[in-house]
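== Folding the chain ==

***
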Amino acid sequence: MTAQRSGDRTGDLIDPRARDHSGEPGGGSVHGVGPSTVLGGRYAVQRRLEKLPHAERWSAHDTTLERDVVVVCFGEDDAHAPATLDAARRAAGLDNHRLVRVLDVGRSDGTAFYVEEAIAEAHTLAQVLEQGGLPAEEARRIAGETATGLEAARSRGLHHLRLTPHSVLRAPDGTIKVRGVATAAAMDSDDDLDSASAARLDAVGVVALTYAALTSRWPLPTPVPGLENAPRVVGGVAAPSEIAAGVPGDLDALCRLTLNDDQGPLSPGDFASQIAPWAPTQVVGLGGSSTRAVDDGVDRTIALPVGDGPGDGPAGRTQGNAPDRAEDPAQGAAGASGGAAPYDQDTQVFAAPGDQRTQPAGAAGGPGAAGAAGAAVGSALGAAGTAAGQAAGAAAHKVGSFAKAAADKAADRKAAKEAAAERADARRISLDEALVEDSTPLDPPLPMLPQETAQTTRDQSRTVLAIVAGFLVVVMALGYWGVTKIGSGTNLGFDTPSDTVTVTGPATTVTPDETPAPTESATTEAGGEDFAILSATGFDPEGDNAERNGEAPRVFDGKTGTFWSSEGYASANLGGLKKGVGVRIDLGQVRKVSEVDLVLPDPSDVTVYVGKDRTLDNAGELGTSKGKDGDVTVKGTAVDGQYVIVWFTSVSQVGDGRFRATLAEVTVR
């Protein structure tokens, strides 16, 4: 049965340190929405999570269904409001666990809004990348899950078109979800792309997402808040392998072909098939790129030891109007989940220039000697000298780290070339050495025949020809005699005569020495053998003609633990949207079907039809089962047909709160 999705409470979908345009967290809404607002008479707004260019994202509580949700609000008079609401309504029809579900669409007192499911304690990929690039296989997994979700949307005629690391959420259990399908583009632009162009744009977006996950840098021209731009080289952007270590060759090649050569995948599904398979669960480890600076509008600080005498004891106290805490890259994981690095009372805090993330002076990977010199100057000459020293150290570190990475790669390539040259020299021999014979003589070749048999005499040749000629004469004589006897009814004597006994019945002849092979219909009626199933597909004639086709083969895999399930509906009668849905079984040829065994995981009303074509128009009804689950047998008068249709007209509510038809196994007799 479908597992219930996480989302019991609202999580921090954005960095808790994020600021709006006023620089203060949770500032006033430009759309008149606040913590006391109730939208649509049921969504009690709680706090603002994110301020978008044309909208705001708020956490809210659904007072009708008693669940936490996320509400995206924008002005009802906004030029893009009608298109955005229409896109949200179409996106609400998507039911894929890799996509953030749209639950409701509405208007309330001049505010237009749509409601999304809440993902508890999820973080955007942009927040995760603040600590640097991800492990290569985790980047592959995130890209693969994202591409698969977008391909599911594309099959329903919807596209994202604005994919960035802010569009991808990762839950604490590693689940990947994509938000903003159709709505992000509708809110941002009036462009109307054809299906092929939209699919290609989403494919490029997923490749750019892969690049960002590997390097923590954004390769496309349009900047993304919170991410540095990828370094530019002749012909485009630097390849991921030139920035991060351990980048797989296939991902590196896809990034170069797509971003620099305008080639690569044409759709998200095309991209997913090229990078598959990927890990089923979250891959934990260190990525190939280092922690980078974050530009989110928050002033950064640096901390230097305070020397109060011998040993520089912990007597120092915070001075000046410094922020409440110092940022430490070693505490990056806490920052990504909304936590803060602990403040050290033994440090003196100064404002840091620019936006560089800083570390305690002298720490491994920090400014090094420049930081130590800054501390000495600070204790001797004051805060001005310290700030200048730290600025120089930060700049030197940023330039030096990139140069060191390039130098290491060049050294590795040089060492590899030298090793290959040495191996080639070791295998190389001169022409003179190749022509010099070995002192050990070779053994003579073994003869195939004795020497005396190598020559054939004339008498032997005549004997062989005479034998062949005699054989041909005998064969021709036998052939002529056999032809003259055709149609004469004469027994040629090649078999023993036997009496033939005729048994009254449907044209069946039985001899005493052999048992008649039963016909297919006789086997079915007497022995009840199962018919082989060629294939199975979802059957939805009143919808899109595809009801989760990918799961349909599970109904004849011989495993009751796997099953096909329909799309989710709002009530047991399929939400009143259609008369029924089901699974169509292809037997490969016309059979006489008299019995069908079903394994139903949930109680359902089901009717079994048999027909010679793929529709219900000319199919005959075999039988019906009402409200049963488990092992169910449907019998009736035998019906000739190639296709068996298991048709659900009433279904049960499953674990995710939706009503779905479920079918584990089908056996046809």
